[in-house]
Predict the structure.
Amino acid sequence: MKTFKISIAFIIAVITVGVAQESSQTLETVYLKRQSSEIVVNDFSEIHQTISLETDRSFRELLKAADRDGQLSFQDEDHKFIIAERTYLKGLRRSVNNSADASAFVVDLQKRFPEIKALLAKDSNLEAIYNVSRPSSFNGKLDALPSIL
């Protein structure tokens, strides 16, 4: 009787292992693709376009005109980023002042606002913002001075 129980247990174990190996070999890898997220709100593109078109206004005037309670927001299906308009304009001004060219300006801006890094990489108005704003910045005025040496 003891031999019969052992032989039945052995047969069940062999069948189970055989079925498990067979079923794992028939499975295929499934790759899930993520759909691109849709942008719901984007105030940054609007303010970038406004700044790039205003060639006669300085950042000082833009900061005075900005509402104290005004907020800029970016929202897509996965992320939401809200910042005060004045804070963003100050960061924009600092990036213009600290950068030597337009590509360095974009990199510095991406470091200051990593939440919207992808948005800033795609924005075509940033080079125009740099070109319009650099002459009125402190380092831009220093660059415009003739060299004494």
Remarks:
- Residues 2-26 form the longest helix (25 residues).
